[in-house]
Design brief:
The structure is a single chain. The protein is α/β, with parallel strands linked by helices. It folds into two domains: 165 residues, Spore Coat Polysaccharide Biosynthesis Protein SpsA, Chain A, CATH 3.90.550.10; 102 residues, no CATH class. The chain is 48% helix and 14% strand. The chain is built from twelve helices and eleven strands. Strands 3-2-1-4-9-6-10-8 form an eight-stranded mixed β-sheet, with helices on both faces. It has a three-stranded mixed β-sheet with strand order 5-11-7. Strand 1, helix 1 and strand 2 form a beta-alpha-beta unit. Helix 4 packs across helix 12, helix 8 packs parallel to helix 12 and helix 10 packs across helix 11. It is globular.
């Protein structure tokens, strides 16, 4: 029965902030009540805790999110570990759906979309639009919108990643060597053991984005750097054509621009390809608000350039340092 499942929600945070205070109000509204909330700041801080929730604050010291999550798992009393971030909050049916899905004992882990809240500021909404664009994220846009079908997956982000505690322990938890990328490594370890990871579009959290300038592009660069490095180190789940495409586009822009100087035919092909790209950009990023539309189109192009460059850098790194 669902009521027999006990879930531990684990949230790493550097220090108590307005986001985690906001999130607590949403944890209070969860329809499934058989859970605990474990918050892991660097140092103990006072916060007005809800009488309606079982909340534990555990000081972790100044360590990374992966170490915080591993520490939270050690203290967790639930057989299900629900990992999310301090700047995210759950849909009211989040745990209800998780409990239902985990009735299937063959499932080791579950993930779902992290949707941009409508309340986010203008520049954060633009970041959300970019991530949710098919031109930017391709099949991975399911991570940012309520879309897609239930299916077996291989790589889900830790902002909305739920794992059986027994299996989490079996694979050794998160690999703190990487951030970001610790979730990619955990999912790979789970798959190597032969377990199922399921994407479910109705397992929803809402994730505040970063401002477009500069934090969105810093995040894109970091993602790309790690993915480029992971192509070499963990090719099982990272050596996929979709991850190479922004770099191919960037290289094509540079080489095509040079060659177009010497050939009218190449020049025509080159500018036609650029025109097609921006046409697709316009189509895939159409927004009702024209100002958001403009910045989403421009931001998608700049995100492709950023990802393409840092993915190449990651490919050539001998060692990836945190």
């Amino acid at each position: 029965m669902q009521k027999d499942i006990y879930i531990s929600i684990i949230v790493p945070v550097s220090k108590i902030n307005d986001y985690i205070k906001e999130a607590i109000t949403y944890y209070e509204k969860l329809s499934f009540r058989n859970f605990e909330l474990i918050i892991l700041p660097d140092e103990a801080e006072h916060i007005e805790l809800s009488d309606n929730l079982n909340i534990r604050m555990i000081s972790s010291g100044k360590v990374g999110p992966a170490e915080k999550r591993d520490l939270g798992a050690q203290y967790a009393e639930g057989e299900i570990l629900a990992f999310t971030d301090d700047d995210a909050y759950p849909d009211s049916e989040w745990l209800t759906r998780i409990a239902e899905i985990f009735q299937n004992q063959d499932i080791a882990a579950i993930g779902g979309p992290a949707v941009t809240p409508k309340s986010d500021s203008f520049w954060k909404r633009i970041s959300g639009h970019i991530f949710a664009s098919y031109l930017m994220s391709g099949p991975y846009r399911k991570r940012y919108i309520k879309n897609g079908k239930v299916h077996e997956d291989y790589d889900l982000p830790s902002v909305n990643l739920i794992v059986r505690k027994s299996i989490f322990k079996e694979v050794g938890g998160f690999d703190s060597t990487f951030y970001p990328g610790e979730d990619t490594k955990l999912c790979l370890d789970i798959k190597k053991k032969g377990y199922q990871i399921i994407y479910h579009p109705d397992v929803i959290v809402y994730h505040h984005r970063r401002n477009l300038f500069p934090k969105h592009f810093q995040q894109i660069a970091n993602y790309a750097l790690h993915r480029g490095y992971f192509v070499k180190k963990y090719p099982e789940t990272s050596r996929r054509i979709a991850y190479f495409m922004p770099s191919m586009f960037l290289i094509g822009l540079i080489i095509g621009g040079i060659l177009s100087i010497f050939s009218p035919l190449i020049r025509w092909i080159y500018f036609s390809a650029i025109a097609l790209y921006f046409l697709l950009n316009l189509i895939f990023n159409f927004k009702i608000n024209l100002l958001e539309y403009f910045w989403t189109v421009l931001g998608t192009f700049l995100s492709h350039m950023t990802y393409g460059l840092f993915f190449i850098v990651g490919l050539f790194l001998k060692e990836l340092k945190r």
